[in-house]
What does this fold into?
Amino acid sequence: MFKGETLACELRNKYGEFQLGTGAFTIKDVLTPRPWANVLSNDRYGLVLSQVGGGFSWFDNCQLYRISRWEQDLVSDSMGRFVYVQDLDEPDDLWSTTYQPTRKSAEVDEAEHGLGYTTFTREFRSLRVRQTVFVPMEHDAEVWLVSITNKSDQVKKLRLASYQELQLGGIGDWHREFHRLFTENQVIDGKLVAWKHPNLVENERNPLEDPIRVVSSWHGAKAKWLSDKQAWLGRCGTVSAPFGLSHEVAKSDTPRWDDPIAVGIVEIEVLPGQTIELTHVIAAGQDLEATLKTAEILDVAKAKSELAETKAYWLKRCAQNPVRSGDPAVDVMANTWLPYQAIAGRIYARCAYYQQGGAYGHRDQLQDSLLFLDLGEPENTLLQLRRHAGAMFEDGSVKHWWHPSIGWGVESHHSDTCLWLSYGTLAYLEGTGDVKALNEVLPYSPGKPSREINEPSVTKGSLLEHCLKGIERCLSLQSPRKLPLLGAGDWNDGLSHAGIEGKGESVWVAMFLFDILNRWKPFLQQVGLSELADRYQLEADSLKHAVNTYGWDGEWYIEGTRDDGRPLGGKSEPQGKIFLNPQTWAVLTGIAPEDRAKQAMAAAKEQLVKEYSALLLAPAFSVVNNYVGYITRYAPGLRENGGVYSHASTWAIMAFAKMGDLETAQAIFKGMLPPVRSAKDADLYAAEPYVMPGNIDGPDSPYEGRAGWTWYTGSASWMARVARWLYPTAK
It folds into this structure.
C-alpha cells in the first residue's frame, strides 16, 4: 500500500501515527484535543467508540434503538461502556481497560483505531491489559476481547466488572423517570437479558410485538450480574469509583424499579507470566433464543476467528481498485479510511460522535453509494437507488430523510432533492450500461404525512418513471425567468428562508438540472423516448440561457435570488458575496461559456481557496437574516457560513481538474487530507487525523483551520472517488 520502509512525516502527529500496511491509527497520547472516535457497524448492529472508551451502542438504528445511554460531550467524553480492573489484594487499586471512567494514567496507554475494530492497550503496576472491541460481520453483537498478562512474579487475584447504563430505546426517550418503568431484566444461563416493554398505541388494541432483547455475557469466568445503578455506584456515587467494587452489594432489583444498568462481575487469578483471555459479548435481537445463542457462541476462540475475518473483510473491501499515487497520505486515506468511513459510517451506521441520525438522507446516502461503482460493487449502488425510489411520492417530491426500518420521515421542501435519484441513476447507467434496471418496478412512498390524514394505497412505477417524475416536478417549479424556484433551500440547506414565498430562484439548481437533462438524452433515446429527449434538450437550452442571462454577475455566478429579489452572492452584497457551488458546477456541467468558466474559477481561487480547502462562501454572514436562512445564525466562519463544507470542496477539486488546473486540484485535495492537517498542527486541527471532517473553520473564526463534525460527511465518498481519477498513477 505504501512505498518506502519508514513512516512519512504526514502519517504521524504529536498524538500518534498510522501503521504501514493496514492504515490503522495508533493513539499514544489518549488526551487528544477532541474525542477521536471509531464507528463500527455491520449494517444492523453498531457502536461509536472514542479513544478513552466513550460512546454508545445500538441495534438497527442509532436513534430509535440505543442499547446504552449516552450524551455527547466533546470535553469530558465520560459516558460509555467500560471494564474495571481491581487487584483484590489492594482493593483501592482500581483502574480500567480504557482511560475512562477511572481516569488513571497508565505506564502504557494506547488506543488503536483500525478498520472494523479498536484495541486499547494499558500497563499498570505489572499488569498488561488489551481490550479489542469489534462488531462481527454476521452477528448482531459487539465483542470485547480482553487479555490480561501478569508481568510480575506474584499471583494476581483480579476482579473485572463490565458496565453500561441501559437506554433500550430511542434518543427521544428523554423522560427517563417514565421510560425506566418499562424496562426489565432477568438472568438466563449466566447471562443478563434486558428489554423494554413495547409501546401500546392510544385508542388501538394493537398486537404486541416481541421486544428487542439485549443479552450481556462473559466467557472465561462465571459472572455475577447487577442491574441497579444506585446499588452499583452508591448514593451520589460516580462511575470513576463505584461503590459496588469496594462493598458487597446485598441485592440489585430489576431496573423496572430503579435506573437500569448492566454490570457483570468476574474474578480471575493470573499466575506470574501468564496471560488470561476473556470475552464480554453484548448481543441484540427480537428472537430471544437466537440472541442467547449469539452471546453463547462468541467465546474466546470464536471471537479471535471472527476478529480476523472482520479485519480481513474491511481491508479487502476498502482496497478495491486501489490508488497508488506514491504519496503515503493520499494512499492511506484512499485505500482504507475514506471507503471505510463512507460505507461503515455513512451507509451502515448513519451515525458518528457529532451526529446520530439513523436515517437515510435523500441526497446523502445516495451520493455515498456511488463509491460502490468505483469499488466494483454496482449492485450496492442499485440497492441504494431502490431505497431512495421508495422515498419518492407520486408527484415527484421526496422525503428529505427517513428511517428505513419504519419508513417515517419528513417531506422535503428543497428545490434539488427531487433530482438526486436521477443523478444517482445516471451515474449507475454510465458506470454499468445496465439500461434494463430502468424497467425495475418500485413502490412510491404511500403518502405525504404533512398533507394527508388518510394514507392512500401504495402505487408503483419503474425506476425510469420515478426519475422522470422528479425531473418534471423541478421543471414545473420555475420562476418567470425560467430559473428553478429555490424553496426552502437548494443543496445548501442553510438557505432555508430565501425562497419560502415562491419567488426566490436557485441558479445552482438550474445548473444541476441542466446537467441531468443533457445526460439523460442518450438513455431516453435508447429506450425509445426520443421525443422526450428532444424536449429535455429544449429545456436544457432554456436553462443555459437563463443562467447566463440572469446568473452571471460580471466576474462570477450568483447562487440565486431571494424572495425580495436581492442576489445570493454578487458584487453588490456586503456578505455572502461569492458562493463556491455555482462556480464549480458552472464548469462541471458545461453550462458556462469557456471565458466565463475561467473567470468564475479564477474568482473562486482568489476569494475562496485556502491552504486547507475551499470556503463555501465569503465573506461570512454576521447578522441573522430571515430572507436568507439559518445559515446566518451560525457563528461567522463555521460550517456553511464562511467555513469549509468539505462535501462542496470536493466538487472544487473536480472543477479545477476539469479546467486543466491539476496543480490547484491536487493542492486542494492534499490540503484537505486529515493526516496532512493534523501533522501540521494537531491541536489546532483538533479532529481525528484518519477520517474526513464535515467542516473546517474559515477565516472569520478565531480557530481558522479547526475541523469538526467528523465521520458523518458525504465528503468521504467523494474524496475516495476523486482520488481514483485525480492521480495519474492510480490504477
The chain has 19 helices and 35 strands. The chain has a mean pLDDT of 94.
